[in-house]
Amino acid sequence: MKNKKIDVKNSSLKKMFDYGMHYKYRFVLIVLLSLVVSITKALPAFLSKYLMDDVLIAKDLNMLKVVSGGLIAATVIKGLAMYYKEIYSSYTTRLVVRDIQQDIYRHLHKLSHSYFDKTPQGEIMARLSGDSSNLGKIGFMAFQILPEFLTVLVLLIGLFRIDLILALMTLVLLPGMMMAIKKILKKIKKTARKRQDQRGELNSLIQESLSGIRVVKAFATEEEEIRKYEDKNMEVLNTEYRNKKIEARISPINEVVTTALTVAVLLYGGHKVITDSSFTAGDLVSFLTALGLMFEPLKKVIKRGSELMSILPSADRVMELLDEVSEVIEKEDAIEYNNLKPEIEFNKIKFKYGKDLDYAINNVSFKGKAGEIVAFVGRSGSGKTTMVNLIPRFYEIESGSITIGGTDIKDFKLKALRDHIGIVPQETFLFSGSIYSNILYGARDVTHEEVINAAKMANAHNFIEEFENGYDTEVGERGTLLSGGQKQRIAIARALLKNPEIMILDEATSALDTESERLVQDALENLMVGRTTFVIAHRLSTIVNADKIIVMEKGEIAEIGSHDELITHGGIYKKLYETQFGEEETEIK
Question: Is the distance from CB of 384 to CB of 378 less than 8 angstroms?
Fold first, then answer.
């Protein structure tokens, strides 16, 4: 595969620079302070000429005072400039990183479900926390390199002012060293990107293993998970080792070139002092001092450059995340919901989760009238959950249309659309915090009494009151301190409090015991009056009274009708029903 030429205009560093331009006046100040630091660092090289010629050789005491005072003044000015440069550069770097992290977090919330389906959480966390934190190091290193680079530039100008031939000798050897180091830096960046990707994979493995720790322990696969972690960790270690081996080449190259250059200058310069009266010993000492002072910042520039190449892939990974485009895009002229009649129609819908995958929904059409209860049944993988996930535009359909009150859902503002849809998912997710805050989540302009009433309707109030802290009880991360049934009832209360025109219930009563299921089912049936409700159920007893039952089979509608109609039809639904309840039908009213 051919290496792609990097487009500077679209490079990660260019994008970081664009962020930095929000604080351009701070950057100007940092550059000016860096220039002051560079000049004061270089000053001893130029004062050394007067120290040699006028003080040591000419025995001028006044010049000794001038040189000494100049060195003291330069040191004080340099110290102050370095102090303020460090403060401003550190804070400015943190501001830029903060802006990028906030944009990443905001951007993540705008991405469609498909991105999170295909991207492991550990990988996302690695980019959001680890890689974005490395951006601060990149900024810090850039500010560290700047004064060193300016120091090299100031000293190089001084070298040409002292002697043209000696300066040209310096420039002959330095480019060769820089070319060799440039090749090394390219290799460092390549191996560093591999290391960052491997760290992302390692984080994903840890996230997955610890999230499923109950399953791991249930199947006694702890040693296997540990082995997978150790293998992946060793991959990271080997890549880091290769990276360090490449970095280690820089130091010997640097030492050989700088020593050879110093000896060459000493030989030529010493000969010129002896044979040319216009070139003094002070000139040679000044040149050698400048050269010596130039080597140190040059080494730092190279070292920082090496470190920069090692973490630069972090910037690439972060910017790649910011470049991710959501499949679900809100129109610029999107409209509000405006109290439309909650009549939903699917018209020849086609949808699949990936280009190379089969259709999850294939040419589906039906209408859910306002106030109707529409139930989806079918075997696992038949497309039931996918169908309801298309209503709030969690995914973008390939063809066809979904309308609410005759308006295509693509025409609505996403927030306006989702504000009018309530969802109780099969896998309940609670946020860290209190029970009260979880019920209140997403609701607006509601009273305390309304929260309590929602909990009562969901059959949650009684068990909440039994806790020592009642509604202030902490639920733990992802609700781990509550039972499955308790979490489900809180999720139902949350949906009830939202009071939407459209309700989606994905196995909403699956985690409840028989008594709680009956009570919650009664509450949900009262809630469904006047609302369009979509129910996914494996327990057919919960949907026999639905206005419309849609039987899904391999992404298509196999049967549609009421419970009695489908039983009479004698197709898939009847087989599913008989499997659950036996051949003797029990009429449930």
Answer: yes
